[in-house]
From TrEMBL:
This is Tetratricopeptide repeat protein. It comes from the Bacteria.
Length: 107
C-alpha cells in the first residue's frame, strides 16, 4: 500500500497525463445493447455517419430478436421492431442514408 501511494504521489508531482477513457467501438455498442429501440436508433445514427457495416449489424440484431410488442414511430405508427429493422436494411441497400446525409450537407 505504501509503495502504491508513493508511485501515485510521484505521478501526480510529475504531472502524468490522466488516462482518457476509450470510446467504445460501434460493434461493442451493438453487442452490449438489448433494447430494440436503442439498437434501431444506433443503426440509423451509424448509417448516417457512413458506418454501414456496423449499422447493418445493428439492424440484423433487431431483426433476429423475438419481440412481441410494437414501437411507436415519430409519425405515430405502431410497428414491430423487426419490420423497422427490415426497412433500415432496405434503406442501407439502396444507399438512402447517404443520400439523406448529402441533402443535409447541402442546406
Amino acid at each position: 500500500m505504501i509503495v502504491q501511494s508513493l508511485i501515485v504521489g510521484a505521478m501526480m508531482v510529475q504531472g502524468a497525463p490522466a488516462a482518457e477513457p476509450l470510446a467504445p467501438t460501434p460493434i461493442a455498442l451493438i453487442e452490449s445493447q438489448e433494447d430494440p429501440a436503442a439498437l434501431l436508433n444506433l443503426g440509423v445514427k451509424l448509417a448516417e455517419q457512413g458506418e454501414t457495416e456496423a449499422a447493418r449489424r445493428a439492424f440484423e440484431k433487431v431483426r433476429s430478436m423475438r419481440i412481441d410488442y410494437t414501437l411507436e414511430t415519430t409519425d405515430g405508427r405502431y410497428v414491430y421492431p423487426a419490420d423497422l429493422a427490415r426497412d433500415g436494411l432496405r434503406m442501407l441497400d439502396r444507399g438512402e442514408f447517404a443520400q439523406q446525409r448529402d441533402k443535409v450537407a447541402t442546406r
